[in-house]
Amino acid sequence: MARRIALILAMLASLLFQPALAEEETKEDYINYIELKPFVTNFGGPGPIRFLKAEVTIQVEDPAAHHAVNAHKAHIRNDLVFLFSGVMEEDIGSVAAQQVLAERALHAVQQLLKEETGDTHVSDLFFTSFVTQ
Predict the structure, then answer these.
(1) Distance from CA of residue 21 to its chain's centroid?
(2) For a Cys staple, 120 with which of 1, 8, 53, 110, CB 3.0–4.6 Å?
(3) Could you tell me which of 26, 29, 25, 51 has the C-alpha nearest to residue 38?
């Protein structure tokens, strides 16, 4: 009888600790994407007016990061508009140059979030659409 009670208690204990283990796995496996509204800005300095339209998606790896990005979305958009409007033709003329611009944008977002929250929060930034005219 004592063996049965011990076995039942062991089974109950394993059931109690199982949700905690599942929660830890979920935090490690969490990846989410936040799509920002499209950016449309002029660029290129003096000369003919050029326009850039970029759709940006930000990758975060935990719910706190998702919340931080949403809380500072207006500030993020502001900084990215200034970054995009300051580029020149040679800064976006090739795929490699666009990748460099994406890295600069990622660094700008991470720096902003580090100043505002104390953590960079964002793990990657993608251009899901990039058009110049």
Answers:
(1) 26
(2) 110
(3) 51
Strand-strand pairing, 50-60 and 32-35: antiparallel
Q: Cα–chain-centroid distance for residue 38?
A: 15
Task: Decide: helix, strand or coil at residue 41.
Answer: strand
Residues 85-130: pLDDT tens digits?
999 988 898 999 999 999 999 999 999 999 999 999 999 999 999 9
Into how many domains does the chain fold?
A: 2
Tell me the whole-structure pTM to 2 decimals. 0.76
Residues 3 and 57 in one domain: no
Neighbours of 60 (CB within 10 A): 22
**Looking at the structure, do residues 58 and 1 belong to the same domain, yes or no?**
no
